[in-house]
Structure formats: structure tokens, C-alpha cells
Write a structure and sequence with these properties.
This protein is mainly beta. The chain has one domain: Lipocalin (Beta Barrel), CATH 2.40.128.120. It contains 1 helix and 8 strands. It has an 8-stranded antiparallel beta barrel. The longest helix is centred in the N-terminal third of the chain and has 13 residues. The relative contact order is 0.23.
Length: 124
């Protein structure tokens, strides 16, 4: 799954100029993820607010923890930094062809060697 996600991200980055936007961009999303280890599944919400032509503010609420971040990109691919009171990290969100209007994401906390993954779906 991780290799598929990374491969999808690379393909998306390679074709960014030739494909119209499909992901949702600004909005509220549901999040289902894993911290990169067995039995570390989690869920929550993500709010994306566009702050400029190519900039976004992201706010995750994950099981009582709030993470705030900023991203550059477009509605299809977002490269983000994030932090809360205890930690910070980096995330890559790429439109998800199988989840129209949503994203797949890989992320890591600063100083960590494992990747977390997220499936981000438009909130209904």
C-alpha cells in the first residue's frame, strides 16, 4: 500500500500541468489513517482553507488532538508542514483517483523514520 501511495504521488507530480483538478481543495474532510505501526489506526477531520492562489491552511482534529499546518500546491497536490503542542511534521496530499474529491496522504513527524498514511474523503 505504501509503495502504491508513493507511486501515485510521483505520477501526480509528474503530470500536474496536464490534468484538470479533480480533488476538492478547500473544504471539510473525514480522515482515516495509521501511524505507520500495527494497531495505530485513527480517525478525525481535516479542514482546508485556501489562503492565497497557491497556499492553504490545514487543520486536523484527530481524536482530540488538533494539528495546524500550511501547504503549498493546488487542489490536486499539497505539500504541507504541520504542528501541535507536542510535535511537528511534513505531509504530502495527492488527489485520490478512487475517492473522487478526496486525497491520499503520507506524512512523518520530524525526526521519525516511519511514514503514516491517511485516506481523506469529502465530508458528507
Amino acid at each position: 500500500m505504501m509503495l502504491k501511495l508513493i507511486g501515485s504521488a510521483m505520477i501526480a507530480l509528474a503530470t500536474i500541468a496536464s490534468v484538470p483538478a479533480m480533488a476538492g481543495g478547500a473544504g471539510v474532510y473525514t480522515v482515516k489513517g495509521n501511524n505507520g505501526e500495527p494497531d495505530t489506526d485513527y480517525s478525525g477531520t481535516l479542514t482546508i482553507v485556501q489562503t492565497g492562489k497557491d497556499t492553504f491552511k490545514l487543520t486536523w482534529n484527530i481524536e482530540g488532538e488538533r494539528y495546524e499546518g500550511y501547504a503549498v500546491g493546488d487542489e490536486r497536490v499539497l505539500a504541507a508542514s504541520f504542528r501541535n503542542k507536542k510535535s511537528s511534521g511534513t505531509a504530502l496530499l495527492v488527489e485520490d483517483d478512487e475517492n473522487k474529491g478526496g486525497y491520499q496522504s503520507i506524512w512523518a513527524f520530524d525526526g521519525e523514520t516511519r511514514l503514516g498514511i491517511e485516506k481523506i474523503s469529502p465530508k458528507k
